[in-house]
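User: I'm putting together a teaching handout on how multi-component assemblies are represented. Below are the sequence lines for each component of a complex, exactly as they appear in our records. Could you produce the 3D structure of the whole assembly as structure tokens, so the students can see both representations side by side? Please keep the chain order the same as the input.
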Amino acid sequence: MGVAIGSAVPAGWLKTVSANLAQQENAGQENAGQGSAGGPQDRVLVVIQLSGGNDGLNTVVPYRDERYRKARPELGISESEVIKLDDALGLHPAMRPVEHLLESQRWSIVQGVGYPSPNRSHFESMDIWHTCHSKKDRANSGWLGRWVADQKSADLSDSLAVHLGAETLPLACQERGVQVPSLASLEQMRLRSKVAATMSSESSPQNTNGGLLDFVSTSTQAAVQVSQRLENVLASPDSSGDFPGSGLGEKLRVVSRLILAGVRTRVYYVSLDGFDTHANQPQAHAGLLRQWSEALGAFTKRMQAAGQQDRVLVVTFSEFGRRVAENASHGTDHGAAAPMFLAGPKLPKLLHGAPPDLGNLDDGDLKFEIDFRSVYASVLESWLGTSSLKSLDGDYRSTGMGLGLFS
Amino acid sequence: MQPLIMQPLIQQTPAITSNMDLEQIDPQWAWEPWQASEQEPWNESRLRLLLRRGGFGGEPKSIAALKNLPHAAAIEALIGSDAKREQERFEEDSAQLLAAVRAGGSIQRLAAWWVHRMIHSPSPLIEKMTLFWHGHFATGADKVIDTELMAQQNQVLRKHAIGDYRQLVHEVAKDPAMLLYLDSASNRKAHPNENFARELMELFCLGEGNYSEKDVQELARCFTGWEIRRKSFRFNSYQHDSGAKTLFGVEGIESGEAAIDQVLNHPAMPMFMARKLFRFFLCDEPEASQELLAPLAQKWVESDHQVEPVVRMILSSRLMLSGWSIGKKIRSPVELAIEWVRALDISTNLDRLSKGLGAVGQSLFHPPNVKGWDAGRAWINSSTLIGRANLLVDLLQDANTRFAGGDLNAWMKSQRITTAESWATMLEESLLAIALSDSERSQWLEQSTQGNRFKEMLLWLSQNPKLHLT
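Assistant: Of course. Below is the structure of the complete assembly, with chains in the same order as your input.
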């Protein structure tokens, strides 16, 4: 008695979780044979952000293109090395751990993704991907933050979106009045002092003026709730299986643990940093792509083993690709359009959009063909079964659906 | 229920209130030096505000010494360097510690060394500004992988902490840790590397939108051949592109040094720095208007890129000291921990403390990226809030933690604190910028009735949301 923080947590949540878990286990067994998913309202989205600007050309390699060879005399990846997708394109050899996804048609590449008037600053371009607005609009909320605000789900005890990582909450997940928890690790969310807590004592709604005090007060309340919730996830056995020990592997292990514990979060956001390969790119880039593929491979296998593979979609993006021509430091500088990646459920097509046209560059950079917001629209509408209009602050439905990303 | 929860400890004047919008504030009024008056006397809470923003709060001893000084003398004590003897002794100790850290080569120990400086330096403003520059010229040890070079850079930032910004930029541009971090060390004539050139304009001097992609490419050419040899800068003329370059439409720029001068002379530069310093010292949000910042930018120009006059103008301004600025910033993890340590005369395991800072988002020598720490609301999320409470709990419960060398009860006795009531008052004054409401305060006193009551009260405070505001 006397532990006041407990009172912040809805009384019935434990019941909800175990009921939910049982339901999902049943669903998993039922669906295991046919590999079909439940309705869109049960689906989960995992966003992986590759920070720093992933070199799209050396990720999805146009290995037969002479212009590629010429632009990349040192960094080019040869036909014998790539994992062939067709007779023009191949994946970087470090991406072997996702080959099983290719074979089972659970992998898609959206080529030439970007936006008009590309910005080559990491931060500005990342902001554009997060807010769906150009710099001049000065938006301070992100597409997933607005998506959370748009869902009518007051009955849910779990946050609709969760960010995993020690870094700052991504702008994509921000919106005034919305609390997207940021978890550095499950263990770190344990409150170590059990003194009668004040963490949620003072935030009467009539005082809200959107100022910093309101912000720290409501954030504190949310933190205590999440902490309590996770105590119980930690108390349940860890059935998440084998994951690589890398940073991203650990994050996806936690995501899988939360999903398998029946947490009803619908969007998870993780990032992998280090793609700003201005110098000594080959080793660094291969290492990063390996880390990404291994973590993704382990995660999708874990979902498959639990019969959840058809309800969890993983989308990977980066803020821009890199300059077509390599620089003198065995690296590449900031560029523009690049591929996005989808993985998890059965997907109708391996390749969307046209391969990069190296004969038609914009100041040394690839031109974009597909607006990233159409991809978001398609994911929000067709995958999550929700409206994309408020989330994207615009209507990208027709181009999004036109892509045919999901069957 | 308290109707008003924002209760600054300082009385407001009719001229300005703490909830007044930034755009309602008259720039002329804002930057006039604050003067004590009958309505706005110079008192301990103003002194504490000044010490929090210009440093890392104060120990009971220094508060007692400073609070009897007139306000101008207190400002001078913070900004000026009159504590010569104390300074010399401290620098001797710190240099010895640093020599040991350098010999060991551990970046974690270097961070602990810096934490020691922040706690004990007689010139806290210098350490605060060194921290500012570390976030400004953010350089990560993970990429540099050389503790010696990180230590060197830290000393460069400290040397010019409130000095000549021009000199600082020139030195940072040739600083080996920076050269490594932004790949300029491998910037060759045949294919210039744009990383440093871009960030010099975007993050260090001008801000996005004040240069073109062409400027980035041209500037990168100016830095070709800037290399490192035996942990020092070296100019390699064979790798330098000596052709003429054009920057911001100015033709005939050749060397990297000339290019840096060109960037520093760009008209956008003073406003860019004014904005950054304003946010660091005064208020996290919203962004200040150009009009409000104009006098600061003007001061920057007048004083020819000297940092000290602008910092002085901010710290001694009406906007700072009238009371408007209270609660307008979120404490960084470093501020939270160091102010806590100083207020309670704590000595503890600094390795563990500096590691603990990393767990709540401010690992010294490991800024998140070249943009440094975003600060403001970005400090706060579920993890960091739980982490902040845990950090303070760990600090209190660490077996190495002492309060002025002894245990908590002995220290409190030395401070003449014997009742929960007087303990609450002392903690509130020294650790909170915004007063607790009556109901919070009575809850605090009621709930802490078991076990070691005084320690329980500290733990209670470690979880209070107001602790994160300054």
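A couple of points students might notice: Chain B touches chain A through 70 residues (CB under 8 Å). Residues 20 and 324 of chain B are 8 Å apart (CA to CA).
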